[in-house]
Protein: PucR family transcriptional regulator
Organism: Nonomuraea deserti
Amino acid sequence: MQLMRIFDSVLDPLEHAGDSAAMLGTLETHLDLGCDVQRTAASLHLHRTTVYYRLGRIAGVLGADLRDGLTRSHLHLALKARRISRQLIGHRISLSVETSGFSPGEETRHSAAYRTHARCLADRAVPCDAWRRS
């Protein structure tokens, strides 16, 4: 868990910036494709100047030099850890529903609150009050 906090702290400035989904998606795609702007633009169906603009915004928000290999490695690792942790949260949710003994249409207030809370954790841009409602 400590490691996830470190990774989250790397990406927190982007999470709280406007249009965070587009910036995080652009950054992850760009890093996945070996920092090739042309391939990033084609993959995201964007013009390459849009990709350059987003990368400039990302660098400004993070206060990082995206040309630095170590910085790119840290960001790529943080993005992949974030994706894996979200997949694990989703997997735990589906397991809890499957093993709860309820039929798919049947739901308790607690299980609904748990799923809502897990979605809030997965999407940190949304403040979570699911537990207070149940």
Observations:
- The two ends are 26 Å apart (CA to CA).
- Residues 2-133 form a domain with the Arc Repressor Mutant, subunit A fold (CATH 1.10.10).
